[in-house]
Amino acid sequence: MKPTVTTASRPRAIERIRLLTCVFAGLFFLLGGAVHDVQAQRTITIEPGFGTINDAIMGDTTATGERVDANTVYVLRGGLSVEDRYYLNGSILTTNYHLQVQAEEGSTVPPVLQVLTDETGVSAGTFIEAEGDVTLRGLYMLGMDDLDAPRSQHVIMNGDDKHLVVDDCFIDYNRFIVFRFNGENGNLRLTNSHIRNVLTTNNPGNGKVVDGRGTNLESVYVENNTFEGVSGEFTRLSGGLMRNLFFHHNTVYNMHAFVRDDFRENSGKVVEARIANNLFINTGWVGDTLNTANPPSNWEVGIFAFDSLSVVPELTEEDRDIHISRNNFFWEPELMDFFNSGFTATCEICSGGTVKQYPIFSPRGQLFVDDGLIRFDNAIEEDPEFGLTSGVSGFIDWVEGYWTEPANVSATMVYFDPDGTNSTEDITDWPVTDDFTYPTTKASFTAGSGGFPLGDLNWFPESKAEWEAQGGGTGIIVSREDNVEFPEGFILRGNYPNPFNPSTTIRFDLPSPADVRIHVYDLLGRELMALPAGSMESGANRTVEVDAGSLPSGVYLYRVFAESPLSVQTLTGRMVLLK
């Protein structure tokens, strides 16, 4: 950790950026950015500097306060030096429109966004707070401000039925929540991203990736990401409901839990989930004591803490469809030595007890597995032997301090930080030096569905390219097994991309030749489009492209009809058009 940078000693480069960009803030559209209209898709290229991104996005309105064009993409230039960053002048606040921010096409390095402190040393706690949909692509969101204080939240979604899409982003440093949903029926699509250092100082529960606290999440789709150093859990629901979870081909290293653990009311009420082809390494690294010494009757501790669905009025246990398959669960020997050492917790709030390893399932979750209500199969336990330069030593020091005197521990003890915090210095290592590749001789390399590697496939580009050629990234579990071309049933494989603009491809398995047509409806059941696709031969992953450019943004239902001389079969799916 570098010495603390006081306001008075803030690097001259940052002060110069603040001065220059403040001078020209009011002239952004004349001097600071370029506006383009390409096939009705308006784009604005924003120049780096202090507050330029706030001014460009929040100031893109007419004299009466309306958005100039709600279908605008804001483009940021790549750059890793201090002078090339986008310094936020407070949070980016949006109304009910679709915010789209992405890296400039063809850039070899990402644009860096960072919150800057004001003259009193105070900075915004959140990058983006949105009432509408949000799409972020190719960004480096540096959550450490220029005084080395981590941000509390990266994106807050306040509107109901809204969608957050994050692709190919690097998100570093957060002390509370990366993505928070305050509105009902939120949707997240997180792909090809690296999230690192989601850690708090003396309360490991305050380090979460997704928080839908008390609200219902409709869909969470997470594929080909790396999560590195998370002191809390992947998701906290706290009485809310998650209807659909797809967690596939992710590398998880040193994350405390997957679904919120502790009291039963915080456990995960998840209806449908596919958790497959992941690496869970050192999950549950903080350990636990209360499950070993007079635990409360409602104490639920485990990597997967699933609650009963019977507490939800419209659901029963039979509505649950959770399958956890083909994952590697491994704890490094140094961490296991600590758990087996008999270390006794002595802190005031610990209630005594020996610090123990987390079980994979909480007590109630294990009952669901035993009763067949949750399917758990094909798990392996293998050291992948990552090419990391850092290990778990700092984490063990932190855990010992936490269970002894929480006030004396610091997140700096466990930061994955090969290149320093980069808060006031140029970023010199890109891509980051963290290496989550592993030897191709490992069982994990072929243990995934279809013989693909477990974990984030971005660490194995050749395997990912083959996986994509086989239909990966479309929300299906890819298989290269024999007889894949002879499906046993009429099965919907979803549509990709989803959300989309303006076209998407619907995939399905067709067990016998049929005349196929697709109809699109609004949520009231009114038919809006009918697309005859003609005769199709039997086979897996048959596709029909739907162009919905004539429809407004919204959520739609589609129905696939397969008609043969003997029958008419139908399948129904849901798609989201975001313009």
SSE order and pairing:
Elements: H1 12-24, H2 28-32, E1 33-38, E2 41-46, E3 49-50, H3 52-58, E4 72-76, E5 86-88, E6 92-94, E7 99-103, E8 112-115, E9 126-130, E10 134-137, E11 140-142, E12 153-157, E13 163-167, E14 170-174, E15 177-181, E16 186-191, E17 194-198, E18 208-211, E19 217-223, E20 226-236, E21 241-248, E22 251-259, E23 262-263, E24 269-276, E25 279-281, E26 299-300, E27 321-325, E28 328-330, H4 333-339, H5 363-370, E29 374-377, H6 393-404, H7 461-469, E30 491-496, E31 503-510, E32 514-521, E33 527-536, E34 539-547, E35 554-563, E36 568-577
Parallel strand pairs: 2-4, 3-5, 4-7, 5-8, 6-9, 7-10, 8-11, 9-12, 10-13, 11-14, 12-15, 13-16, 14-17, 15-18, 16-19, 17-20, 18-20, 19-21, 20-22, 21-24, 22-25, 24-27, 25-28, 27-29
Antiparallel strand pairs: 1-2, 23-26, 30-31, 31-34, 32-33, 32-35, 35-36
The beta-strand count equals 36
From the N-terminal CA to the C-terminal CA, the straight-line distance is 43 Å
Mean pLDDT: 83
Total individual domains? 3
Uncertain segments: 1-12, 22-32, 291-296, 480-485
Gross geometry: globular
Major sheet attributes = 15 strands, parallel
Query: What portion of residues belong to β-strands?
Result: 35-45%
What is the count of helical runs? 7
Q: What is the CA-atom radius of gyration, in angstroms?
A: 24 Å
Helix- and strand-based class?
A: mainly beta
In percent, how helical is the residue content? 10-25%
